[in-house]
Amino acid sequence: MRITRTGRRGRRAAALTTTVLTASALLLTGCSSDGDSDASDSNGNITLTVADFGQFGYKEADLFAKYHKLHPKITVKEQTTANEQDYYPKLLQQLNTGSGLADVTGIEVGRIKEVVDTQAAKFTDLSKTINVDDWVSWKEKQATASDGTVIGAGTDIGPMSLCYRKDLFDKAGLPSDRDAVAKAVAGGWEDYLKLGEQYKKKAPSGTYFMDSASAMYNAVVSSSAQQYYDASGKPIYKDSASVQQGWNLAAEAASKKLTHGLAQFTDAWTAALRKGSVATVACPAWMAGQISTNSGDAFKGKWDIAKAPGSTAANWGGSFLAVPKSGKHAKEAAELVKWLTAPEQQAEVFKAIGVFPSNKGAYDLPGVKNATLPYFNNAPIGQIYADEAKTIPEAVLGPKDATIKDTISTQINNMEQRGTKPADAWKAATEAIDKVIG
Fold first, then answer.
1. Strand partners, 300
2. Are 70 and 27 in contact (CB under 8 A)?
3. 209-229: pLDDT as tens digits
C-alpha cells in the first residue's frame, strides 16, 4: 500500500469545525528554554531543519512561524518529500553515511521497527525530553528500543472509519444515515461486502462500491494485533489469520466486481474521486483530507463518515519525529519535537488537515473532542476517532512491514485490474516478498 498520508504536498484538507485554540494554550507548551548551541551564529541565532514526507500539517497549521515567535532566535525550515517511498531510502543512505541528515526527521510507522532495530544508536533518546506516558501506550512502544531508548515521538495515528457517499447510497436504495450504515456493517468486513452486493444491484451508472480492494485489505489487517510478524520477529505473513482474511475478502471483492480497481493515490484514483465514481473508501483518520482535497467542492456534504465495519478497532498509519545525534542542534531539535507533538499543537494539525493526534492529552481539548467535518456532512470525527483510538490493539511490528504491504497490495491490484487469478497473485506476492526478507 502507499503509506504516505498524501501524495501532494501543500494542498489543504477540509477545515474542521472546532473551538479555536488560545494563544495562551500555545504558550503553555512553548515555554521551554531556547537552549544553547555551539553552532549558533554570533548573535545566537540558529536554524533547525525538519525533513518529512507527504503532509505532516505543520505548514498548514503555521506551527513553525508560531515556534519562531516563541523562540525568536530559532528559525525552522521544512524539507518535504512528496512520497514516503522516495523519502525512506534517502534517509537510510544519510544514516549510513552520516551526512545530509536534518535536525529532525520523520519516520513512517511501517518503517519504525526497522529503524529501531538497526539504527537506534544514531538517534537521540527522547525519553529524556518527552513523557512517553502522554501517548497512547502502543504508539510509543513502537519507537522504543530494547534498551528503553525512545527514538521517536508520535505525531499521529490512523484510527479507522468508513467514508461513504451518502447521496449514492440513497440512489442505490441503501441506508444512508451514519448510524444505520454502521449497523449494516457491524458484523465486520464480510458485512461490508454484502452491502456492496446490494449497492451493485442498483448502483448509479458509472459508480463502484469501493475504490480499492487493497485498501479494504489493509483495513482488515490493521485491526489485528498479529499481522506480518510474530513477537519473536519471525515473518508469519503466509500463515497470518488477518492476512488470510484480508486477502480472501479482497479476492472476493475483485471477483464480484465490487471495486473500481484503483491503486490509491494514483492519478486514476484522484480522478475517480473528482468524478464522483467511488461510493466508499476504507477511511483511517488521515484519509478524510485526501478525499475532500481530491473530490473538491462539488461533493461537499455528499460524503459522510460512519464507524468502521466490525467490533475490533483498527489503526492504519501514523508517523514519528526523531532527532539524529549527528545534528549540531540536537538539544534544540528535541525541544522542537516536544513542542510539535504536544497536545495543543497536535490539535492544531488535526484542525488544519484532519490527521488524528497520538498524544492522549489532545483528546479532551475542545478542538479535538468537539470536532466535526463540514465536508463530510458534519460527521463528529473527534468522537468517532477518539472512541476508536482507545481500543486499538497493540500490533506486532516487523522491519519489512511496509514492503510486505506494498507487495501484497500490488498483487491485489493485479487481481482487480488484470483479472489475475488469486492463486497466481498470491504466488507472485510471496515470491517477491521472500526475495526481500529472505
1. none
2. yes
3. 999 999 999 999 999 999 999
The three grid cell numbers given for residue 186, joined into one nine-digit string: 457491524
Rg of the chain over CA atoms, in angstroms? Answer: 21
Pinpoint the alpha helices (H) of 241-319.
241-255, 267-275, 287-295
> Cell numbers at residue 14, please?
477540509
Cα distances from 74 to residues 17, 43, 325, 385, 417, in angstroms, run 32, 11, 19, 34, 50
**In whole angstroms, what is the distance from residue 271 CA to residue 172 CA?**
22
Contact by Cβ (8 Å): 3, 108: yes
Beta bridge partners of 284: 160
* CB contact burial 26-41 (16+ within 10 A = b; e otherwise): beebbeeebbebeebe
Distances (CA, A) of 413 to 40, 197, 220, 355, 418: 51, 20, 16, 26, 8
* Dmax (CA) of the chain: 72
Q: Decide if 306 contacts 183 (C-beta within 8 A).
A: no
Cell numbers placing 216: 479494504
What pLDDT digit, counting tens, does each position of 119-158 carry? 999 999 999 999 999 999 899 999 999 999 999 999 999 9
Distance set, CA 252 to CA 59, 194, 249, 261, 269 (Å):
41, 11, 5, 13, 21
Give the C-alpha separation, 74 to 326, whole Å: 19
With beta carbons less than 8 A apart as the criterion, state whether 356 and 74 touch. Answer: no
Phi and psi at residue 7, in whole multiples of 5°? -85, -5
C-beta of residue 415 within 8 angstroms of C-beta of residue 216: no
C-alpha cell at 1: 500500500
The CA distance from 15 to 36, in Å, is 38
